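Incident log, structure service

09:12 report received: a user says their structure output differs between two submissions of the same chain.
09:20 pulled the input from the user's history:
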Amino acid sequence: MKTSSQHTEELVSALVSIPRLAILKAIADAPLTISEIVTQTGLSRQLVCFHLDILMKARLVSRRYQVLKPPVKSTPGRAAQKYALNAERYNQGLREYTNLMIINAPR
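09:34 re-ran on a clean worker, output below:
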């Protein structure tokens, strides 16, 4: 079982990455598929998948399944994985990061 400091370290380390921040910015307004995240961020699919895994382990992002509208009404919709920002956890991470910066600031 992880300690509180381990959870804080995992959360903060997930936030201090430019690619991960780009992904969080992309999904801030609405859940997106990996392809949509790739398009919005300009990151490769492999890099997006790598960073999404880290963000999900830190519970900053959740994966949801959503049925997409079919292109033709007579065909069934297909399920797509969409990734959504966990805003509450993101705000918690920012608070913890700020507290760490204040505690470790030179005097």
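09:41 both user submissions now match this output. Likely a transient worker issue. Closing.
09:42 reviewer note: Helices lie at 4-15, 18-26, 34-41, 45-57, 87-103. The two ends are 35 Å apart (CA to CA).
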